[in-house]
Amino acid sequence: MKRMHVHVAVKDIQQSVGFYSALFGAEPTVVKSDYAKWMLDDPRVNFAISTRGREPGLDHLGIQVESAEELGEVYARLRKAGGEVIEQGQTVCCYARSEKSWIDDPAGIAWETFHTTGESIVYGDGSGERNARVAHEKQDAKQSAGCAPEPHALPPEASVCCRS
Question: Rounded to two decimals, what is the model's pTM?
Answer without folding.
Answer: 0.72
